[in-house]
Write a structure and sequence with these properties.
Neuraminidase, 3 helices, five-stranded antiparallel beta sheet, globular, mainly beta
């Protein structure tokens, strides 16, 4: 594997392409036009017909396995069993951006059936988007269900859930850049709205917010905003009324490398994140020491990132499969707590 291989967030790459193509129909709204369900009376182009997730995967696609993986994940701790793909979730397509809810009952993630398909085609394939699986009484994950979050063409990803409220990033008509939305269940459907105004307290660099996690009265996110240690860094903002106060850098974990995709455990004792030192992403953990975060430690390396942890301490993350220097698949893995 080339030493300069860099893995980029699937949804982020899709967003960049769609801004220049499929989602420019309204001439580039600044994000204040609104896209709540039925908001503003705008005519919205019809979305694609939904397609079964398994059926959307190209015929002949071969599922990568730990045995055939050229670069399997490497565990650096004896606190967990060796990681393996999550049964019923990982397919020959690409699963990304996992998020386990605080009660451990739901696993949210992004899926696209074929990484070789350009984002503007993913927009209309009827399968790419956010899914959720519910944990059965025996501990297994049930059949993932597609979560419909738009009445027109769109791409959604980066799911994070708190108190029954879903936050997600999206590229859609009327927005010139990727935008953060929230959604709430109403009468068996989802009602959504943009939350750009709520993020205004993060300052003039709010548009640089990457993935985020709302936990308690804090918003933890990654950003390339000025004032960090270099590249992308982790930041935290405290709740301030209906918005968020000016963020501060998480200096205990930030470095000259890229830190991103933060996740804070339900009890607030651990901060998990992805670090990329230029040879692919790795999973790192920092434990809380008083009100501060301690020195982080490497937990999983070799093309592993976007960690999330359930209440039992089981670690879920994304593992990317390469053939040569080509990204061909992404799976959600789990390392079971010993």
């Amino acid at each position: 594997m080339s030493r300069n291989v860099r893995i980029v967030l699937i949804v982020g790459a899709a967003a960049a392409a769609l801004v220049a193509t499929a989602c420019s129909g309204d001439g580039g709204d600044d994000g204040d036009g609104g896209d709540g369900r039925g908001a503003g009376g705008r005519d919205v182009a019809a979305g694609p017909t939904l397609v079964d997730r398994e059926a959307s995967i190209p015929a002949g696609a071969e599922k990568a396995t730990p045995e055939t993986d050229e670069h399997p994940p490497v565990l650096h701790s004896d606190e967990w069993e060796q990681p393996a793909p999550v049964p019923g979730i990982s397919t020959a397509g690409a699963e990304d951006a996992p998020f386990v809810t605080a009660d451990g009952a739901e696993l949210w993630f992004f899926f696209t059936p074929d990484l070789s398909v350009p984002p503007e085609e993913q927009l209309l394939d009827g399968a790419t988007g956010i899914y959720v699986a519910t944990r059965a009484p025996d501990g297994r994950w049930g059949e993932p269900q597609r979560v419909v979050l738009s009445e027109g063409p769109s791409l959604e990803g980066c799911p994070t859930v708190r108190g029954g409220e879903l936050w997600f990033c999206t590229v859609r008509e009327g927005y010139a850049t990727p935008t953060w939305f929230r959604a709430r269940p109403v009468d068996g459907e989802w009602d959504w709205e943009p939350i750009g105004d709520e993020l205004d307290g993060l300052g003039p660099d709010a548009s640089l917010v990457g993935e985020l996690h709302v936990t308690g009265g804090e918003l933890v996110f990654d950003s390339s905003r000025p004032g960090g240690a270099g590249g992308r860094d982790l930041w935290v903002a405290e709740r301030d009324g209906e918005g968020w106060a000016e963020p501060t850098a998480v200096t205990a974990v930030n470095s000259a490398a890229d830190e991103s995709r933060p996740f804070v455990t339900a009890d607030g004792s651990e901060l998990w994140f992805t670090r990329d030192v230029g040879v692919g992403p790795e999973v790192w953990r920092s434990r809380r020491v008083g009100r501060d975060w301690g020195t982080p430690e490497l937990v999983v390396s070799s093309l592993a990132g976007e960690p999330t942890v359930d209440p039992e301490g089981n670690l879920y993350f994304v593992h990317h499969h390469l053939q040569g220097d080509t990204l061909v698949e992404a799976d959600i893995y789990v390392a079971t707590r010993r």
